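Format is sequence with structure; example below:
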Amino acid sequence: MKLRSALPALAALALAVPAAAQNDTQAETAKMDRGEQKLAKLLEGRVAGEPTNCVMHRPNARLYVIDETALVYDAGSTIYVNYTSDPESLDDHDYLVLRNPTPNICRTTQITTRDRGSNTFSGVIFLTDFIPYERVREEG
């Protein structure tokens, strides 16, 4: 008899767990969508070129994170996007630390992240190819 009285509670619990997991998934999807939307807006009016292993590091270029989406290397006329091997781990609240003995940023460049608030180590970024995006030139 005790099992019968526990069945409604177990059924309610079984229904609640997937709903909570679904809410978490929806929140993660919305956050990822924001990153993808931000990247799409940044690349508006640009066309992708051939992926490359390295980009020349320029003093006036900016390397930054789009949360859970990609690393962006803004070299002015060309924007390079690196989706990394694990874009979900990218956090725009972290700052990047490059250990690079060469004047280029390549797939083999060692990049770690540190938390802005506590300045503690927060992760390692493994790069993939850089995809260059250049503005579409209008003819005429």
